[in-house]
Automatic annotation (TrEMBL):
Membrane topology: Single-pass membrane protein
Reported function: Essential subunit of the Sec protein translocation channel SecYEG. Clamps together the 2 halves of SecY. May contact the channel plug during translocation.
Family membership noted in the UniProt record: Belongs to the SecE/SEC61-gamma family.
Subcellular location: Cell membrane; Membrane
NCBIfam families (UniProt xref): secE_bact
GO cellular component: plasma membrane
A single BP term in Gene Ontology: protein secretion
UniProt protein name: Protein translocase subunit SecE
Gene Ontology molecular functions: protein transmembrane transporter activity
Keywords carried by this UniProt record: Cell membrane, Membrane, Protein transport, Translocation, Transmembrane, Transmembrane helix, Transport
Keyword Oxidoreductase: no
Self-association and partners: Component of the Sec protein translocase complex. Heterotrimer consisting of SecY, SecE and SecG subunits. The heterotrimers can form oligomers, although 1 heterotrimer is thought to be able to translocate proteins. Interacts with the ribosome. Interacts with SecDF, and other proteins may be involved. Interacts with SecA.
Encoding gene (name): secE
InterPro entries linked: SecE_bac (IPR005807), SecE_sf (IPR038379), Translocase_SecE/Sec61-g (IPR001901)
Length: 66
């Protein structure tokens, strides 16, 4: 079982570890966010098109016997 650390020491450790993190710049964050939106848009368009195409093909198959 882990030993208990008092809250003050814990917060000091958290602050020390947080200072070691390399944070992205505002520019890097903006570019990454825009790239995520672009890729989500492409994926949404692709899956919409694939769904429409498969729906059309299935309607052709199912209407053959009608």
């Amino acid at each position: 079982m882990a030993s208990k650390t008092n809250p003050f020491a814990f917060l000091q450790q958290v602050r020390a570890e947080t200072s070691k993190v390399t944070w992205p710049s505002r520019r890097e964050t903006t570019i990454s966010t825009l790239m995520v939106f672009v890729m989500v848009s492409f994926a949404a368009a692709f899956f919409f098109g694939a769904d429409q195409l498969l729906g059309w093909v299935m309607s052709l198959i199912l209407n053959v016997g009608a």
